[in-house]
Amino acid sequence: MMSSTATGLQPQRTLAELKELRALTGTEEGAQRVAFTETWATARAWFRDKLADLPVEIEQDEVGNVWVTLRGESEKELLIGGHLDSVPNGGWLDGCLNVLAGLEVMRRIAAEGTPPVTVRLVDWADEEGARFGRSLFGSSAVSNTLNPDEVRNLTDKDGIKLVDAVKAFNVDLDRAKEAGKQLKNAAAYLELHIEQGPVLESMDYPLGVVLGTFGVERHSIRFTGQSAHAGSTPMDQRRDALGAAAKLALEIREIGKRNGGVCTCGSVITKPGIVTAVVGQCDITLDQRHLNAEGLATMLQEAKDASQRFAEEEDVSMEWRSLWQIHPILFDDELISMADEAVRETAGRSHKLPSGPLHDAAEVARAGVPTVMLFAQSLRGLSHAKEEDTKEDHILQSVEALDRLASKAMAWIAAQ
Description:
By secondary structure, the protein is α+β, with helices and mostly antiparallel strands. The protein has 12 helices and 18 strands.
């Protein structure tokens, strides 16, 4: 098979543009493209400039997603997606590799004339949820799983409400459900991302194919005991809220191990929070992920049972509050096979693996669109940190693999 690079694809251009974007919107501490901020707007304006020479239509939907459309012979659409937004002090590849690799693939397709199907590149709005805590904002609106009333009063660290912040970017929450029309003709969705984990590096594989995304259970748990003087309260008479929370934080690690999933306690807040007082109230968060729905449900029940047991042991009360949940999402078998072929043709070998982090691809798949993802190896498995990195050769290979997959997917759609 002729290499796609012989047809005009220039992966080196993608690498150069990734570095250009890093210089434009990053600092010594990492990427700063938090959604619904001026730096994010700068990145999007820069991206729009890159589209100037392409025969495409550009539009922003009701929730801020940007759609770039290359019309084809058929109205059936191949979607390629990613996100330019980042977490604060984030990595230089998370999200934007998807968009800029997709841009290069679109350039190659456009240079060859009218494609057999319509090709659309989407920059999803606020995949990270870094400012207001609601991940997959734009894609969940398109999949019709976003409830505007549940997010409009979310606030950032400065007390600014989401509903007010997004207005400055021409986003009207009351029209969010209208964004779903963007998937009317969608026949397949492709997404490239860095792995954000250590699996591919540990196996010495440059690229991988994603089977699906983990289901997630995310909860906050409040243990309430009694604040008391640290010096005068005997150990056997304490009602220590942190004691129960600490036991649970350790137990969830074992729950994850024995069930083949992952469990994380990412936040602990104590009150009164002073060195001389027994903790009267402790709030912790629990994040559980599994590719199997039954496994996820088992982990959640075991965590609830353990929290009740530890609350009784420490003589404290306990309350659970659900923060967010999503079922495991399995990707399309035929697209997985095509992706596996594309990776093997590019890198000589391929590995299939699940994704622990969530991605916009999960929301598109929830909407019923056949979906698949490619992963590029992450050095040391790091992401959401300035140390995030991927070998340049692997970045170049990932662009070519996405291009090969796009060609296979277009032929598949056209034949339907």
